[in-house]
Amino acid sequence: MITLSNINFKYKTTKFKLSNINYIFENNKIYAIIGNNGSGKSTLMQIISGIIKPNKGEVKINDITIKDVKKQNLVKIGIVFSNPDNQIIFNNVYDDIAFTLKNYNINKNEFDDRITYALKCVNMLEFKFAETFNLSSGQKQRIAIAGMLSLKPDVLLFDECTSLLDPSSKQDLYDLFIKLKQQGITIIFTTNILDEIIYADQVLIMDHGEIVSSLSATETVKNLDIFETIKMQVPTKLKIFNKLLLSNKIDTLSEVELLKTISEMC
Predict the structure, then answer these.
(1) pLDDT at 188 over 60
(2) What is the DSSP letter of 92?
(3) 3-state SS track over 178-206
(4) With a threshold of 0.70, does the pTM exceed it?
(5) Whose C-alpha in 43, 72, 97, 139 is 20 to 30 A from the C-alpha of 81?
(6) Distances in Å between the alpha carbon of 207 and those of 52, 160, 210, 226?
(7) Alpha carbon distance 59, 53 (integer Å)
(8) Alpha-helix residue ranges (DSSP H) falling in 202-250
(9) For the chain, what is the largest distance between any 2 Cα atoms, rounded to a whole number of angstroms?
(10) What's the pLDDT tens digit per position in 57-74?
């Protein structure tokens, strides 16, 4: 569980700020954080991960402050960014993931098992010793994710990770979210693509550094007018979902197979 208590943050060079963020992310759920560019999504993710410190407030992971998590070198949270080239350092897949494990002082005897596990999760085991510069953007993104999975964190953060992916690779990532949740990992992902909220259990909408809504994916789709207030255009797929839900032809968006079936209508 991640608890955000009275989080405030302001950059020195811009007017942007996060204001009094209070929120609890429960274990073993998928959360989507959505909003326009500049709404505060990425800043909030970096605060949750401990990359940047809030000016005021506290982040706790299972009752341990993020500061103490970092001090004790505990592996609780992994973060994957939109551009995998910013996370992949080595030219060889195995070496790159091994470097991540080394940084967290994981016993070397565990390296091979952890790397194999992580690559299996992202369907990239056959690339275990491949050259990273020969990989596609989607494959590189999977390797970046595998690097974080090798740490076996409780929570995985994905900051607009579909921005460079083709439709097939995006679907692979959505399916991975479901798979990781089934393994007990909490997923938090940011996006400004409204279609993606249907893969979440809970949807947080941000605007001007504040959380303006927190509803289940089903309730969010039932209330699409929320997006009008923050000037986000609603895609056709969500409008169809909205009509089906309000007409009681379906009653949930939580079942993966149902989502895929309805998606084929668009």
Answers:
(1) yes
(2) B
(3) HHHHHCCCEEEEEECCHHHHHHCCEEEEE
(4) yes
(5) 72
(6) 20, 16, 5, 11
(7) 9
(8) 217-222, 225-229, 236-246
(9) 57
(10) 999 888 888 776 665 556
